[in-house]
Every structure is written in structure tokens, then in C-alpha cells.
Amino acid sequence: MEELTKHFINNNRRQFLQKFGLGIGGLAVASMLDPFSSLAASPESSLANIKLPHFAPKAKRIIYLFQSGGPSQLELFDYKPLLNKMRGDDLPDSVRMGQRLTGMTSGQESFPLVGSNFKFDQYGQSRTWVSNLMPYTAKIVDELCFIKSMHTEAINHDPAITFFQTGSQQAGRPSMGSWMSYGLGSLNNNLPTFTVLLSRGTGRPFSQPLYSRLWGNGFLSSLHQGVQFRAGKDPVLYLKDPEGMSRLERRMMLDYISELNQKQEEEFGDPEINTRIAQYEMAYRMQTSVPETMNIEDEPEHIIQMYGADCTIPGTYAANCLLARRLVERDVRFVQLYHMGWDQHENLPTQIEKQAKDVDQGTAALIMDLKQRGLLEDTLVIWGGEFGRTNYSQGTLTDVNYGRDHHPKCFTMFMAGGGVKPGFSYGETDDFGYNIVKDPVHVHDLQATMMHLMGIDHTKFTFKHQGRRFRLTDVSGHVVNDLLI
């Protein structure tokens, strides 16, 4: 209890000003507004009503580096030399045990085992196995907490991604970033609480699309939906004033609209009207804060070199990693990156080499950049996809080429900072890399652990909708305490 009390009172002057719309970037705007208007948000977004956090958090912010398509753990982090020794042999029935396959390989006459074409080695004091596809990540393994025993029920992309992002395989639930926004609120009223960044991989650039419902608010107020920052001259659509409209005219227009909306709210009592008012005001403040956040011209050369040359190209993974750091530096609560292209059903060796090159340097740079700025200790970084890949080849296996199908029964993710153990690996798979043999971690377990680090008891954090109390972890999930410091 004493630790929780310290958390609430340990706010410095900068945090206080940001919470009340008086951050340096918003001083001019706030002088034209009621600086305490943010307190007039709808009751369902009130921190006092939700009574969060439940206990002192280890993390204040999350950066989720979602690798869409399902990265092959067998090419990256889960070293299985037996697969190389048995290359071409059929997957034993005793290992498969009749498990479900996708329609893409269920009709194959055989399931030839295939090990990785890439070399593995052990790195750091933790002696963690990493392939030569990830040389930058290999250098920072002592900062990482690996989970090698992740598993899920979903075997196809759409339900699997939706499951990770919302806790349900069916569309319509709030995304995890929306849950964090609803429960914990904003740390900076001049930027969205929940932001989204997309990049497309070079390994398989025309793979499955992503849908905006993945960062949607579901049945929560639309105030909590993710805001996508795009590459190009207009990072947030419809944010700029129309030509010929001055800043003062925009302010006057918003004031008149707010008066009309408030009359409507008084008459009809619709909470979405208050949400609309808050969104208009946020957009007004973002006209100042977003250009400043997106402009990387003030980044020193050594930081550009740290992230790699691609970080100067808007829309690349490296550029989004740098932007993620700039966002959490400004206390954005939840930053969601999606990197597409990890679905290697064929030509895997060529494609995954490009995919890994896309993300390796940027990921490592982001983690070390956060550390050198003192942000890693209270920022949780998560890296991983929706499932793993099979240990057998999809399609024809040759000496130099193969593919891998979806495999939900075991795969690898890693985390860093935010209260997780550094230089630590949790869980094990069998020698075939097909089944978990020690310490399984379900998707809901990961979500429960993530919320625990943010100071939330996942069993108590609910929202009543259509007569039922919903939560991110649905009716299951447990905190994996062995991952925590």
C-alpha cells in the first residue's frame, strides 16, 4: 500500500502540467481554453471511477512491436539441431499426435522435417541462442526476456491476430491499447493515449493486410480507439486546417461547435457527444504536438546511425521504431507497431532474411535508446507475432529452399524493460520444436502479465456490455510471475 501511495504522489512538475493540458507544446492553446476541461470527460473514462492502478505499476508505457504473419521461431531463436540431422525424414506421428493442420498442408502426402539453413550461436552472459539473421538483437540478449513456450488456439491469421490484440478470436472487442487508455488514461493530453504505426516488410511485401478494427475501441468509448500515424506529409488525416482558415478562426469554430454539442448532451445524455467534444479538442492540440513529434531533424547523427539509414525514410520499420521512442518520450501510454510480411509459406530462406534485416537493427536500437535515456525501466517492449511456423516443409523441400506453415502450438516472443527479467529465457519446446515440454504461456497469460506490470489485476478490470462483464483476458489467463523482476 505504501508503494502504491508513493506512485500516486510521485509526480514531477512536468507530468503535472502535461496531465492538465499545460505541457510546453500546449501552453498557447491552453491559455485559450479551460485548462481543466479534460476533467469533464465522460464518466466511463474517469480514473477515479475505475480505481486504477490496483497496485504500484512497474511499467507506465508499452511499445508492442507486432510481427504480423508469424515469424519462424526455428529460424530466429529456437535452436533445434535435431531437425538438421533428420532433414527430409517424415514428422513422426508420435510427435504430431493428430494435431490440427491448415488447409494448405493437410493434404500433403508427407511432412518432411527441415532444420534452419541459418547458423545459430550463443550470446551474452545469458548464453542465449540466436541465429545469424539477427546480429543486432544478438548483442542485446542480456536485456531481453524470451518466452519460448507461447501457444494459441488460432491457426489462421485473422483470428490469431485478433486474439492477440483483443483477447478474442472474433472481431468486435476492444484492443489492448484501448483497454489501457480506458483504464489508465492519458499521460500527455496533447497526444493520443494510444497510437498505431504500420510498416510493410521487404521479405513478402504483398502479404495479408491489416484491419483498423485491430486497434479499434470495440464497445468502449471511441475516445479510446488507436490513432494511426501515417508516413507522408499528413501523419494524421484531416488534422490540418482548411486553406484560408486562421488558428483563431479554428478556435472560434470549435468553441461554437462545443456549445452546440453540450446542448445536445444536456438534452439527450449521449456520452458519445462528450467524446466528440474531447476529440475535437485533441485534434486542435495535435496540430501543434504532432508535427513536433514527427520531425526527426533534431535527432543527432549518432542516433540516426544507431537505428540505421532506413530510419530517415518515413513508413519503414526503423523510422517507426525511432518514432515510437519519441512518442513514449512524450508519455504516450501505448504505442502499437505492426510490421507485415512474416508469412513464409514458400521461399522462406530468401524472404525471412529480408524480413529479419528490416527489424533487427531498429528493434535493438529502440531498446538500447530507451535504456540510455532512463526510459526502459518503466517502458515495456514486446516483440512477437500471432503464431509460429511448422518444423516440416510446406511444399517441396530442396537443398536450398523450403517453406513453413502456421504452427500455433509453440513459438517464441521476447520482452524488455518494464519490470521483466533481463537475460532470461522461459519455457522449452521438444527437440523437434513441435510441442511445449515446459512452462507453457498462453496468449491470455501474456495479456494478464502485461496488465500486471501496468498495475492492473486483469480479473478485476472489466467493462459491462450487453449484460456481461467483459475483460481483455476473457475468463482465463494468469500472471507469469517467473518473468517478473
What do you see in this structure?
By secondary structure, the chain is of the alpha/beta class. The protein has one domain (42-483). The protein contains 16 helices and 17 strands. The strands form five sheets. Strands 1, 4, 5, 6, 7, 8, 11, 12 and 15 form a nine-stranded mixed β-sheet that branches. It has a two-stranded antiparallel sheet with strand order 2-3. Strands 9-10 form a two-stranded antiparallel ribbon. The longest helix has 25 residues, at 348-372. Residues 11-49 have low confidence and may be disordered. It comes from Gilvirhabdus luticola. It holds the Pfam family DUF1501. This is DUF1501 domain-containing protein.
Summarize this structure as a short list of keywords or feature phrases.
nine-stranded mixed beta sheet; single chain; 485 residues; globular; 16 helices; DUF1501 domain-containing protein; Alkaline_phosphatase_core_sf
Tell me, rounded to a whole number, the average pLDDT.
90
Distance between the termini: 19 Å
Q: What's the shape?
A: globular
Largest sheet composition:
9 strands, mixed
Rg computed from alpha carbons, rounded to a whole number of angstroms: 23 Å
The total tally of domains equals 1
Classification by helices and strands: alpha/beta
Total DSSP helices: 16
Proportion of residues in helical segments:
25-40%
The percentage of residues in β strands lies in 15-25%
Low-confidence stretches: 11-49
Number of strands: 17
Organism: Gilvirhabdus luticola
Pfam families: DUF1501
InterPro entries: Alkaline_phosphatase_core_sf, DUF1501, TAT_signal
Protein name: DUF1501 domain-containing protein
